[in-house]
């Protein structure tokens, strides 16, 4: 794949940009998008940046029926000296291809995808918000487009990237969230699609979220689908516990999504020489730790929220209050460090950030 | 909901119809489609029959990201005396709403949906094929359309019905299929979405199908996601066994789809006073029955294939040949009876077929 061939068609009109301090999550989109098509004859072809526009598909297109799709989520930041930074974007495109493999979607050239993303961001750089807590959210996704009702991998696809200036995922900001432990519904099971970032995992989570939302909990903690004992994820984030000084996160067991933030937290803790363990952890262990006073902190990790401290778990009619419902010291330190690195305010000792420069996004404007 | 308000806009051009004896499955669509929209303000509104046309959606529409969608599948048949018959369509719309509930999609008026379907079929009645084994396949589906990247139920939806003249689902016709027992991948688990007809279940099944396809098996037999011992479904069908005279099908355990054909087979067997048991059945039990010569028949049931005899299971490096790889007597009798009733060739003792008449599809043509 020749990455020089990305064409750019600029939008003739520019949309009005929202106030940087009034942004919500994922509701406003920029002036341009990236698009590339796949057919069996041509493979992935025609990579192009075009004005943000609707997609027109036959009603029999497979995406509408059999959910063959994958997506990613990452962010771009504008530093005070106007440099554009991405956070470990290569990890997202690697995972996109892992998801593609699980969903029988043809592999995408990761280098081309990253180059295209840089060009797209450069094209819409005026859209990157600068207010505290804001960023440019990036949504790469692949949809199956063949108009055919047989249950089989699609013969055609679209790979698209759209950009959205966003505020904090949680309106409360870094304040702790209350989480209900889900005992009825299951997110994923070994042998299923839990390790892939695909629509079906999120569709299946809506019901649990709706039920817990009515009880006043903003997210659910997922337990394993086999014994309903062991902790998997929280909402659409990975989860960490600090128990008696030990940092614990569920091991990648075949049904948990390997979050880029999760990986980065583990690497950062190791860099700080703070012990971190990836292992199986049961909800009963968390309750016992709460009971004997050793449950010091709990937090979720994900691109959208970065670090989301957990102030309370609700499980089996019992409320487990954590750190008096306040943000823990470690959660705060991780949040400050990670967002500091992401925004270019702190040193980047593990070489995570990637700068978007004009040189890194050569293209043909037509 | 006033069912009188379905408007019809007729297509100005008519597509060429395929030869009735050269039909494949789900590749050709008729001249019209039904569409209805949902918004939080108006609820489900604007039910309409329009020319078959592409759907135009914002790239941020939830269906492209979080898979919030459901679908159904049923068939219409043209009898020799030119009556149009549907097979238990109310069951499909009941299940559509069960799926809607699991996926947090607002309920659809089942009576309106059925009236709309009748009108749509009446409008495209020339498309119903007549050759042996052919029918008009009907695909109702709901997609989430709100352009928003937060993980939450969509605020807007489209309910669409499209029609496709089809041949037999399996090119081999009623000939037995070879099935690989899936030991790595899992279709669904209790607490997941296995009982709902939603895209994610089908997306997750593609990989297993691809792997078994390379081994020469046309479908997989799914085992339970917890112990990987008990039989759930076969491909996108329910499954039945005849062991030592007893007809057995896996009980509805919270992860199996309740097929309309499955229900009808059970009711038909009971009507015939043939004992049928819904219970847990392990693959080991099937192997033992094969070993001692009591595994008489096995077959899948579903709308697309109706009855699909199973000639061989492959499990743990062992091939279990059933009935010498030939279609069993009961499988054949069930296939002949069910398709006979569906096509109006046989008496309908259990009152299953619903006739589409002009009177049953009153409408406003504009």
From TrEMBL, chains A, B:
UniProt cross-references to SUPFAM superfamilies, sorted A to Z: D-aminoacid aminotransferase-like PLP-dependent enzymes
Keywords from the UniProt entry: Amino-acid biosynthesis, Aminotransferase, Branched-chain amino acid biosynthesis, Pyridoxal phosphate, Transferase
One Pfam family per UniProt: Aminotran_4
Name of the protein this chain belongs to: Branched-chain-amino-acid aminotransferase
Record PTM N6-(pyridoxal phosphate)lysine, positions in chain: 197
Cofactors required: pyridoxal 5'-phosphate
InterPro entries hit by this protein: Aminotrans_IV (IPR001544), Aminotrans_IV_CS (IPR018300), Aminotransferase-like (IPR036038), B_amino_transII (IPR005786), BCAT-like_C (IPR043132), BCAT-like_N (IPR043131), BCAT_family (IPR033939)
Organism annotation: Peribacillus cavernae
Catalytic activity, EC: 2.6.1.42
Family to which this protein belongs: Belongs to the class-IV pyridoxal-phosphate-dependent aminotransferase family.
Any one GO molecular-function label of the UniProt entry: L-leucine-2-oxoglutarate transaminase activity
Pathway membership, UniProt: Amino-acid biosynthesis; L-isoleucine biosynthesis; L-isoleucine from 2-oxobutanoate: step 4/4; Amino-acid biosynthesis; L-valine biosynthesis; L-valine from pyruvate: step 4/4; Amino-acid biosynthesis; L-leucine biosynthesis; L-leucine from 3-methyl-2-oxobutanoate: step 4/4
Organismal lineage: Bacteria, Bacillati, Bacillota, Bacilli, Bacillales
């Amino acid at each position: 794949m020749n990455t020089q061939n990305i064409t750019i068609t600029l939008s003739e009109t520019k949309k009005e940009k929202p106030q940087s301090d009034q942004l919500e999550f994922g509701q406003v989109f920029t002036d341009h998008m990236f698009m590339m098509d796949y057919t069996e004859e041509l493979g992935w072809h025609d990579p192009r940046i075009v004005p943000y526009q609707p997609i027109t598909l036959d009603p029999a297109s497979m995406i509408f029926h059999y959910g063959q799709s994958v997506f990613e989520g990452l962010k771009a930041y504008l530093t005070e000296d106007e440099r554009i930074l991405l956070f470990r974007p290569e990890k997202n495109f690697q995972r996109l291809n892992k998801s593609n493999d699980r969903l029988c979607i043809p592999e995408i050239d990761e280098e081309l995808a990253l180059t295209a993303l840089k060009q797209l961001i450069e094209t819409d750089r005026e859209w990157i918000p600068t207010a505290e807590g804001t960023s440019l959210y990036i949504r790469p996704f692949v949809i199956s487009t063949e108009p055919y009702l047989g249950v089989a991998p699609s013969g055609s696809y679209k790979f698209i990237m759209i950009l959205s200036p966003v505020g904090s995922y949680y309106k409360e900001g870094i304040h702790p969230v209350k989480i209900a432990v889900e005992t009825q519904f299951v997110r994923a099971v070994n042998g299923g699609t839990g390790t892939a970032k695909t629509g079906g995992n999120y569709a299946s989570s809506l019901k649990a979220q709706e039920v817990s939302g009515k009880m006043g909990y903003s997210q659910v903690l997922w337990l394993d689908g086999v014994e309903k004992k062991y902790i998997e994820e929280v909402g659409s984030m990975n989860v960490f516990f600090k128990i008696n000084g030990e940092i614990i996160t569920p091991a990648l067991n075949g049904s948990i999504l390997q979050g880029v933030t999760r990986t980065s937290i583990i690497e950062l803790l190791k860099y700080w020489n703070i012990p971190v363990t990836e292992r199986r952890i049961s909800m009963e262990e968390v309750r016992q730790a709460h009971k004997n006073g050793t449950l010091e902190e709990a937090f979720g990790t994900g691109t959208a929220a970065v670090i989301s401290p957990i102030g309370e778990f609700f499980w089996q009619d019992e409320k487990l209050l954590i750190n008096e419902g306040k943000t823990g010291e470690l959660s705060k330190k991780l949040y400050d460090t990670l967002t500091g690195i992401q925004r270019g305010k702190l040193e980047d000792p593990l070489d995570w950030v990637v700068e978007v420069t004009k040189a890194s996004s050569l293209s043909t404007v037509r």
